[in-house]
Amino acid sequence: MIHPDTELKFISNEIGYGVVATKFIPAGTITWVLDRLDREFTPLELQQMDPIYQNILDTYTFRNNKGNYILCWDNGRYVNHSFNSNCLTTAYDFEIAIRDIQPGEQLTDDYGYLNIPLPFRAVDEGTRRKIVYPDDLRKYYKVWDKKIEKVFGHITKRQQALRPLLPEALWDRIEGIVAGKEEMESILTNFYNGESV
């Protein structure tokens, strides 16, 4: 589920629609949680679908570390790519804001950690990276881990609208990580290596 202080908005002809903050979202805020309404499809299920459904899933899903396709049921499926994203996924089936997000600003992900099947050239943002590759997660996980670690301690200090969606055991684990009692798992645990599980 996407954070409630967001809305779907037309961005441009090139990009299409995107998810925009309607209120200030501070760094360390959980911006998305994999919830019980999100759908998971195996590669076999996808192959058995009509092409019209395959195209929809190809556009609006990401792959988890098992290689299954995840379709967000809400506006979360419209979060656009940025090489300088303001949200990052974690090893715990939620994403957090890695910097403050202002009202009217798009929430963005780097599609490099979403296990895309094929490379694609993204909209030029003036960054060194121009193409998203299927193995970007293996290349950049250390950089992304540092960005997550920098704000992870804020999770328990922020008002978390999506907190009710997190299992109690996961919240306890988050508190343990924030308190220094256990290590944060790397974003690399999300990597799908292309093998069937």
UniProtKB/TrEMBL annotation:
Transmembrane segments: none
Any one biological process term the GO annotation gives: methylation
Gene3D superfamilies xref list: SET domain (2.170.270.10)
Domain SET, first and last residues per copy: 4-112
Keywords: Methyltransferase, Transferase
A molecular function GO annotation: methyltransferase activity
InterPro entries linked to this entry: SET_dom, SET_dom_sf
CDD domains on file: SET (cd08161)
Superkingdom of the source species: Bacteria
Name this polypeptide is given: SET domain-containing protein-lysine N-methyltransferase
Organism of provenance: Flagellimonas olearia
